[in-house]
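Q&A log
Question type: sequence-to-structure
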Amino acid sequence: MTKKYIYTIVILITNIYLSTALVKDTTYKVFQFPADKIPRIDGDTEDWSIVPESYAIKTGQLQDDSGIHEEADPKNLKVSVKVGWVKNMNKLYFLYEASDNYWDFTHPGLHNDIFEVVVDGDLSGGPLIDKSHRKVWTKKSVGVHRSKLDHRVDKREDHWKRHGVHAQNYHIFTPPKGKDWALVWGSQPWIKKLPFANAAYEYNFHPGDSGKLVLEFCITPFDYAGPEGPERAVKSTLKENDIIGLSWAIIDYDDAQSDKNNGFWNLSPKHTMYGQASYLCAFKLMPMREQFLKPIKADWSHKIIDMKRRLVAFKDKSHGKITSWKWDFGDGTSSNKQNPIHQYNKPGEYTVVLYVEGPEGKSRMSKVWDVFVK
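Response status: OK
Response body:
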């Protein structure tokens, strides 16, 4: 086996590791909101009262990467973050509550108290900002390691092709004064605008004051978000019990005249999580809590597997303990199977009904003309 071959294998294995690894053993929870209780982005925390406190991630769970503070001082900065999602909607909802002894937001640029959020919806991992992309693998006698920035890679070309494309970084200003609510650290600022994102604030302090801020916002994770706009974009598909990559940091400024911050409070143990999606934390998209579910509820989906033969596969998606199923296919035939395949003899639009029954009762789901065969 040649050295070149061994080196290639090492590169492949290392890249696979970097694209899938998350940095903490802890798996955090993303609360599932019922479809009739989606939080309104208005800065009012009432919508979040149904979220248990166990979902909140607080200051004590963060570390200061700046080295200024050994541990969090609630008199200086105290934060709480809750994250939510809604089934069949590819959005993440955030409630950020922060009490700070000095709110710094007078400058028009980056010097601003910031809540920095990074999301990788499909766990693709790897570098996500241009300066991280331009680090390349090199061969050395001691093994494989990261080199310094390779200036042979054109920065402008890299910015437009890969900067923030597969995972996204949001510098959210807390609060924004005379500026947009967020800087998207990438080549696609369109992702911070409706319908992909929205934000609302509630606070009553002035620059330099202490006080409490409420930030409520939603963002859309993308597997692909290019500089050309949403036309070719691919939203991340959020599914129950899936793991996504997510982390954040609070950049705390306490002196309007100094460029130095007073802390970089990071959820990830890796400071450079801001540009390396493999350094994010694991967040689980939680199932609906039992209190919001009916004991038994019929539901189903279908897929036409052969239009020429009018062959349709039906899938039971009911909730609860179910002991019997009855399908009415709308053409005078029925089935007691849980997931039947049915062939229609004639073209048409059909009303299909699923009846389910169990110890908790009965339920029915009828869908009018959803099933169409020609």
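Response note: Helices lie at 3-20, 130-133, 155-162.
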